[in-house]
Design goal:
Layout lengths: L4 H4 L15 H12 L10 E7 L3 H7 L4 H4 L7 E8 L13 H18 L3 E5 L4 H7 L6 E10 L13 H4 L6 E2 L5 E2 L1
Antiparallel strand pairs: 1-2, 2-4, 3-4, 5-6
Length: 184
C-alpha cells in the first residue's frame, strides 16, 4: 500500500530551527487548512491562539509551558494553542458532542499543511491550560486543549516507525483475496 508522502514523512521533532522565522503567508496557510477541515454540521468549533516567535503572543504562550516542553517548544517558529468550543455560552449545554473530534481534524489539517510547506509539527499538552486561559481571557465556554509547535527541524533525527496497524485496530473487515476466500 502506498501511503501519501506527506503522511509517510510526518514525525514530531524534538528540535526546531531557532533561526527560522515563519512567514505570515505560511501562518495564514496553516489557518486556512484548519478552516477547510470537516466538522459536524460545519460548526467549526475551534479557535486558535497563534504566536510567531518574537511576537508578544508567542512570548505569552511560552510563559505557560511546562518544564518538559520549555526546553524545545520556544524555538518553534510558531506556537498555536488549540481551543474547542465546548458549551453554549452561559449554559452547561454541550455546544457539539463532536467539538474535540472536530478540533482534532482541524489540527491534523494544519499538520499536513505544515508538511507541504516544509515545516514540521509537534502536538503537545505540557503546559498550564488554566493559566493560559486566564492569560488570554478565554471565555469559559471554550476549552484550551493542546498546543502545536510548527517550524523546520534542525536535526535529521527521525523516530522509529509507528505502531503496526494490528496494534491499533480493534476490529476490521476481513480481507478478501482473488480466490474469494476470507482471510482472517
Amino acid at each position: 500500500m502506498a501511503l501519501h508522502p506527506l503522511l509517510a514523512e510526518r514525525f514530531s521533532p524534538a528540535l526546531f530551527d531557532p533561526e527560522h522565522d515563519a512567514a505570515a503567508e505560511d501562518v495564514e496557510a496553516l489557518l486556512e487548512a484548519a478552516r477547510w477541515a470537516p466538522s459536524a454540521g460545519n460548526a467549526q468549533p475551534w479557535a486558535f491562539l497563534v504566536g510567531r516567535r518574537g511576537d508578544p503572543v508567542h512570548d505569552r504562550l511560552v510563559r505557560h509551558l511546562a518544564g518538559s516542553s520549555a526546553g524545545w517548544a520556544p524555538s518553534a517558529s510558531v506556537l498555536v494553542a488549540n481551543l474547542a468550543h465546548r458549551f453554549v455560552e452561559g449554559t452547561d449545554w454541550e455546544f457539539s458532542e463532536f467539538a474535540l473530534y472536530d478540533l482534532g481534524q482541524a489540527v491534523a489539517h494544519m499538520t499536513i499543511q505544515a508538511q507541504a510547506l516544509g515545516l514540521r509539527a509537534r502536538q503537545f499538552r505540557a503546559f498550564d491550560r488554566n493559566g493560559l486561559a486566564a492569560e488570554f481571557a478565554v471565555p469559559t465556554h471554550w476549552e484550551v486543549t493542546t498546543m502545536t509547535a510548527f517550524g523546520p527541524t534542525r536535526s535529521s533525527y527521525r523516530p522509529a516507525v509507528s505502531a503496526p496497524i494490528a496494534d491499533t485496530t480493534l476490529a476490521a473487515t476481513p480481507k478478501i483475496n482473488t480466490s474469494a476466500e476470507l482471510i482472517p
